[in-house]
Design goal:
heterodimer; A: 361 residues; alpha/beta; Glutathione S-transferase Yfyf (Class Pi), Chain A, domain 2; Rossmann fold; 3 domains; four-stranded parallel β-sheet; 15 helices; 8 strands; B: 1015 residues; FAD/NAD(P)-binding domain; Alpha-Beta Plaits; five-stranded parallel β-sheet; 52 strands
Chain lengths: 361, 1015
């Protein structure tokens, strides 16, 4: 499963995690108490409220690996409140029973040493009733990689298993991991590129792959895309899986800055970035939705005309708030929320993705 | 082997280096005190007050600075750095780079004319960058050496060849722009490293927003509190307003393995408490909050100080570590979020200022020095020493002391420093006295038949006096008093240049008596007396008027009346000084032997340290066996057995030719004083010695009545250690209860050692059987300093820690312990257990008070011996020639006891090493003609100085035998008790004669016509 072991017993109960926990600001949840309960009473109360955003990990003075702790506590447990009727989990379950998919969504170079996996963007499009196109992340990614001179092989993988793992379903995760590992090994690629932050964390940290795993921002940061018309003011929302989990803050900024965009930082940024408010298809409720408001208000204060992220969950969740725009209570957000690849690809087309953007519809 | 050189290089001029230097210099060794900055004093010079007594830091330090700078055996190499060390123990060659100051130290008088004309403003390091200084500067007002230094990096002339103002205005032609750094080679027998620590830089912890102007470090806050600070003691926010709410955040850069700093910094809990207390003294409306993980009040008097802060001063202590400081994007106000203690609620709270309690970190210059010396350091950059040789580095002949070894507070640092001096002295004992110079004075001028010509200096003491008392008004008033020929004001009368100035004034005005109106004679009188003597005046023609402790400090709210009182006090002193007599000291031969009472680790170390220096030493232990408390434990924190330390130590004690050991023996009687003690042992033997060290240790308390003690399966830590050694711990579940019988009304102090001991033992229990369930029930975990590492290891082993409070203690019943879970909503938690281990406090042993009586030294309310000064004289008694070491002073760990024992030995040897003792001039004398031999003086003298002697009175025709009192000048302390008691006025207390005292009273009662009455 995970590479790291859970060291929660070194916790000296100082309470730093509670002070920084975004979830604690909306429900009575406490990482400290969860550790205490587990170590002393051997109970696993409270472990399902955690959004696994990892803010506590960066703040903990003792170096407690709280994410590993929560993961360990969840394995074999009964998750609660999986959103969208749990359909994504069911899908993943079905995938484990399917043979190799024959669907080819994208054209790629089957002989390439670099593989691109689009993740489950199609399913997001199917199930989320949002005024946006998740599939555009996949098409944008392939366009950008080609522009960078890297025609990838399109990887027909199963779901990476991220959500299942964090929902505590070790068995299902192991099946997906096994199948995907076989597919990747057989493909002969030496680098797997993903555009989803969750895929990235999972393939990088929870799989034991022989090939290199890269987030697309890491590839694009060093590529010459030839975009010079990016006059936008862009704010960046660091997705927890790309940021705090795997430590990549610079690549997305570098890729965006290369277009000439002016990057503005929100009050909480990089390792201190606030959570979008959802994780692993759990806990999407009025409480966690309050976290979106916090985050979107911060973005609004920067005066940015586009908010860029690298995770479809963040994208869905933050855009969902835009759908509910409520100017009466100040919840109106005059900026777009876009995936990094979509923002860049639209620039490639000569458009101006930052100010309401063409190519949107 | 190369010839032994009777000199020592001390690197680092903070309080540690100063103490080492003074001890060695007093012992007859030449000392080079090397300091990289322009002035000695170190971080202590930057502190406002010191815990737990709230003494003014500079006031206690400044006499030491002056003493070090004036000592004839100390050569101060300020603004200098060690470049190279070669040679071996006994004979080292050290290349020292003397950095160019661009000011001739001989010509500069620090008149400060240049300061006014220097156009460059630079951030002032002394005020932690919160104010500006000039490019030519004195680091702080009391700085020694007191000469200007040009900051070459910022001087316009040195960088651009322009300006030159300082050279133009200097009347002494002291400025030398051509000065170059130069290397100087010194030859020494030993080296002591005492270069201290660097304050942790919190910039890297971005979440605490140190860049915000109202987020400051604790060291910066010390400067804000200080009267010599950037706002002369008024705490201000960046906007100039007075803060109403201040928060301290503990463990910034400590107890944080995530940033590679796992150690506890040992001092921050107490300095934060002190700062909050002092800040509230400045402003009684101020609200203070200290956010902490565990409150580590482990030292002597600390727990009581903490309780006072919490219960009486009203400082709010919150056991929660905020994750950072939040800044409101609109208002720029500071707030912190934290978990509310005793609940799982969280709160956000605004504060006007946030103080970061930054830790102590090894300084880069210390690391560099260790590299030059080829000395081993641990992974964090602390110098490696062993528990049983805490000052000994990996290179023979080079010793280390203070915070360069591990974070520690001032008393531990001072003890360490004396201890390191002892070690250096030991290897150079045979070269003692070879390189020192006798102090020579100018001849005393003859003032007999002269009318009094009195000079009066009135001191501002920064703002300590001047902010309350109208000092110029006092000066003007004093000028009107009889015999006063000169009076003037000084900012700090005790600074080196002021002292020099006093000498000049004595000459210029041909003064024959001097009054300084400043602070307490306890610390400062010797300094001024020495100054008078330097000017050719008998030192007893000096009087100190205390207008600080007795006036400005106690009458802060009434400046007008305080000014009048200052006039009264000074007038009384002037009246007295006019009548003072010339007095002279005597030089007497004395006994150069040492006595150590108590044969534990501290006592044995002290005895060995004295004997190694060539002095006859007696070691008296009342038990039949040496070893003391240490014998009841079986392992050290580093895993070694205690016998590994004890056996060689006992062997060394028994084989040293200078050392006589008496076991199973007590000291029953003592008479005499420093230099001529006589003692009677229980075996009837009589011994004579010049100095004594009390190292009678402590015992583990028998916790009768606590937590079911007495039952078979309820034992103390020492009993557990024995069982562990025997392999007879037959328990699958062990519960340890901390503070069992301690930190309560009966024993209100913290026993310091038992958190570390508990960690050591739970690790042993787990190593023996990893499956064992272990619970530690605690109030605060106080594994201070480097021992925090043991706490983390214990947790890594899966030991479970649960907190309890004094008012809701765990209950031990047959086979179970029930605790109220404070961290989880006060639920009751029952633990099934096979063994309960109690961490019972250390208590003073039976008979401590009897020992105290023998030497007439005090004990505190917990029957531990009371040292002369809690910060700067940790192993001295107020009584000369008697010292203390180890847990007799307060509970302490073995390495600390050893360091203290060497320290006490160093202090004792600084006396024993003298050729002759000099008596005080202030003693009582008997007029034999008037004495009727009644013996009342013998009864009242606390020191045993008077003795009745049979004398034969021979007259013209009749002779008879009678008794007359005789006072031993070496023992007499001049207290005057006998003089007061004497029914026939046969005894005169010199310097406090009836005539002199009457004059003072008259001056108080009868003001002359020139004095205005206060309405």
């Amino acid at each position: 499963m995970t590479n790291n072991s859970n060291n929660s017993q070194v916790c000296y109960q100082c309470g730093t995690c509670i002070a920084i926990c975004p979830v604690r600001r909306v429900v009575k949840f406490s990482p400290r108490v969860a550790i205490y309960d587990s170590n002393i009473y051997d109970t696993d109360t409270d472990v399902w409220d955690c959004l696994t955003c990892g803010q506590c990990v960066t703040a903990c003075p003792q170096g407690v690996r709280l994410l590993d702790f929560f993961l360990d506590q969840r394995i074999g447990g009964e998750p609660r409140d999986i959103v969208h009727k749990g359909v994504f989990t069911e899908l993943a379950d079905l995938m484990t029973q399917l043979g190799n998919s024959k669907t080819t969504l994208l054209k790629g170079d089957d002989t390439a040493g670099i593989g691109y996996f689009p993740g489950c963007v199609d399913f997001h499009d199917m199930f989320f009733d949002l005024d946006m196109d998740f599939g555009e992340i996949a098409t944008s990614s392939v366009t950008l990689l080609s522009k960078a001179g890297l025609s990838p092989k399109i990887m027909q993988l199963k779901c990476c298993g991220h959500d299942q793992l964090w929902q505590g379903n070790q068995e299902m995760f192991d099946k997906l991991k096994e199948e995907n590992t076989r597919l990747i090994n057989e493909s002969g690629i030496d680098t797997l590129v993903v555009s989803c932050a969750e895929c990235y964390r999972t393939f990088l940290m929870d799989y034991d792959l022989d090939c290199e795993v890269k987030h697309i921002s890491q590839v694009l940061a060093d590529a010459d895309l030839g975009i010079t018309n990016g006059s936008a003011t862009a704010a960046i929302h660091d997705a927890c899986r790309l940021g705090r989990h795997t430590g990549e803050y610079d690549a997305p900024r570098k890729a965006i800055a290369a277009t000439g965009a002016n990057i503005v930082e929100m009050q909480h940024t990089k390792e201190n970035a606030l959570c979008c408010g959802v994780s692993s298809m759990m806990n999407c409720n009025d409480h966690t939705k309050a976290l979106r408001v916090l985050r979107m208000d911060e973005a609004k204060r920067t005066g940015a005309d586009v908010l860029i992220t690298s995770c479809p969950k963040c994208l869905a969740h933050l855009n969902c708030l835009k759908e509910e725009e409520d100017s009466e209570h100040g919840h109106d957000y005059p900026f777009e929320v876009l995936d990094l690849t979509v923002y860049l690809a639209r620039k490639l087309g000569g458009g101006n993705g930052g100010d309401g953007g063409d190519g949107d519809e | 082997m190369a010839e032994l050189v009777g000199a020592v290089a001390v690197a680092g001029g903070g309080i540690a280096g100063i103490q080492s230097a003074l001890d060695l210099a007093d012992s007859g060794l030449k000392v080079y005190l090397i300091e990289s900055s322009p002035a000695i004093g170190g971080v202590m010079a930057q502190l406002d007050k010191t815990f737990p007594t709230l003494d003014c830091s500079m006031c206690t330090l400044s006499p030491k600075l002056a003493e070090a700078s004036r000592h004839q055996n100390i050569e101060l190499l300020a603004y200098s750095e060690i470049k190279e060390i070669s040679g071996e123990a006994g004979n080292f060659e050290i290349t020292v780079t003397r950095k160019a100051t661009y000011v001739d130290p001989v010509k500069c008088t620090a008149c400060e004319l240049c300061l006014a004309k220097c156009p460059v403003k630079v951030l002032d390091e002394y005020n932690a960058g919160m104010s500006k200084r000039k490019a030519i500067y004195l680091p702080f007002p009391q700085a020694v050496s007191r000469v200007m230094t040009i900051d070459a990096e910022h001087c316009i002339y040195l960088t651009k060849g322009k300006c030159g103002n300082c050279k133009k205005v200097c009347e002494n032609d002291a400025i030398d722009y051509e000065m170059k750094d130069r290397d100087e080679v010194i030859n020494v027998g030993s080296v002591i490293l005492s270069t201290g620590f660097a304050p942790f830089d919190p910039t890297e912890l971005e979440q605490f927003h140190y860049e915000h102007l109202d987020v400051v470090t604790a060291l910066e806050f010390e400067r804000l509190l200080s009267s010599s600070g950037p706002y002369v003691g008024h705490v201000k926010m960046a906007n100039g307003e007075t803060p109403k709410k201040i928060a301290w955040l503990q463990c910034i850069g400590s107890r944080n393995p995530e940033i590679g700093r796992p150690n506890c910094s040992a001092v921050c809990c107490m300095y934060a408490t002190k700062e909050a207390m002092v800040a509230m003294e400045h402003d009684s409306e101020l609200e203070t909050t200290i956010f902490n993980i565990d409150l580590r009040a482990f030292g002597k008097g600390f727990e009581q100080f903490y309780q006072r802060a919490k219960n009486e001063t009203g400082i709010r202590f919150i056991r929660s570590r905020p994750s950072g400081v939040d800044i409101d994007p609109v208002t720029n106000r500071l707030s912190v979020r934290y978990e509310v203690e005793g609940s799982t609620e969280t709160a956000g709270e605004e504060f006007d200022m946030v103080i970061l309690s930054i830790g102590l970190t090894p300084s880069e210059s210390s690391k560099k020095l260790a590299e030059i010396a080829g000395i081993e350091m641990d992974e964090y950059g602390n110098i490696t020493t062993a528990i049983d040789a805490p000052m000994t580095t990996s290179v023979p002949g080079i010793f280390a002391c203070g915070t360069i070894v591990a974070p520690k507070d001032i008393p531990d640092t001072v003890a360490d420093a004396s201890g390191a001096a002892s070690k250096a002295h030991s290897i150079l004992a045979s070269a003692r006295g070879t390189l020192v110079i006798e102090r020579t004075y100018v001849p005393e001028k003859d003032i007999t038949d002269e009318e009094p010509r009195i000079g009066v200096v009135v001191c501002d003491c920064g703002i300590n006096i001047a902010s309350v008392v109208d000092v110029p008004a006092v000066v003007e008033y004093v000028k009107t008093l009889p015999y006063v020929v000169h009076a003037y004001e000084q900012t700090y009368a005790c600074s080196t240049d002021s002292l020099d100035n006093i000498k000049d004034v004595i000459k210029e005005h041909n003064l024959n008596r001097v009054v300084v109106a400043s602070c307490t004679p306890r610390t400062h009188e010797p300094l001024f007396q020495d100054t008078c003597r330097d000017a050719g005046l008998n030192p007893y023609l000096f009087e100190l008027a205390n207008i600080r402790e007795h006036c400005s400090w106690v009458h802060q709210q009434e400046p007008k009346l305080a000014t009048e009182k200052a006039k009264d006090i000074t007038r009384m002193s002037v009246a007295r000084v006019a009548l003072l007599d010339l007095l002279y000291t005597q030089k007497l031969d004395f006994n150069h032997g040492g006595l150590v009472i108590g044969g534990g680790v501290a006592g044995m170390t002290a005895a060995l340290d004295i004997a190694e220096k060539g002095f006859t030493t007696y070691l008296v232990e009342r038990e039949p066996e040496l070893g003391g408390l240490f014998r009841t434990f079986t392992r050290l924190q580093d895993g070694r057995t205690t016998t590994e330390i004890l056996d060689p130590m006992i062997a060394a004690v028994n084989s040293n030719p200078n050392l006589t050991v008496y076991t199973g023996t007590t000291l029953d009687e003592v008479e005499g004083a420093m230099g001529r003690f006589k003692g009677k042992l229980s075996n009837g033997e009589e011994i004579e010695f010049g100095s004594a060290i009390i190292a009678t240790g402590a015992n583990e308390f028998e916790p009768e009545g606590y937590f079911g003690y007495g039952a078979d399966n309820v034992i103390t830590q020492s009993a557990l250690e024995v069982k562990l050694d025997e392999g007879t711990v037959d328990a699958a579940s062990v519960v340890m209860i901390q503070c069992a019988g301690g930190r309560n009304d009966e024993r209100p102090y913290c026993s310091r050692v038992y958190c570390t001991t508990a960690m050591k033992n739970v690790i042993r229990l787990k190593e023996e059987d990893p499956e064992r369930n272990i619970y530690v029930l605690y109030r605060d975990i106080r594994t201070y300093g480097v021992w925090e590492e043991l706490y983390t290891r214990a947790r890594e082993f899966g030991v479970i820690f649960m907190r309890y409070t004094e008012d809701d203690e765990p209950v031990v019943a047959d086979g179970t312990v029930t605790i109220t879970d404070k961290l989880l909503n006060d639920t009751k938690f029952e633990i099934a257990t096979d063994l309960v281990v109690l961490s019972a406090p250390l208590v003073a042993p039976e008979g401590a008070e009897d020992t105290a009586m023998l030497f007439k030294v005090p004990v505190d309310s917990n029957k531990f011996f009371l040292e002369a000064h809690i910060k700067l004289r940790p192993v001295d008694f107020a009584t000369d020639g008697v010292f203390l070491a180890g847990s007799a002073q307060a509970p302490k760990l073995v390495d600390e006891s050893i360091s203290q024992a060497s320290a006490a030995a160093s202090r004792a040897c600084s006396i024993l090493a003298k050729e002759q003792l000099e008596t005080s001039g202030v003693i009582s004398v008997v007029d034999a003609d008037v004495c009727i031999g009644c013996g009342r003086c013998v009864e009242v003298c606390p020191y045993g100085a008077p003795e009745l002697k049979e004398v034969e009175i021979v007259t013209e025709e009749i002779s008879y035998m009678t008794r007359k009192s005789e006072i031993d000048p070496a023992i007499c302390k001049g207290c005057g008790s006998c003089a007061a008691e004497c029914p026939t006025s046969a005894i005169t207390a010199r310097h406090f004669t009836t005539k002199q005292i009457s004059a003072v009273i008259d001056a108080f009662a009868f003001t002359d016509g020139s004095i205005e009455e206060v309405a």
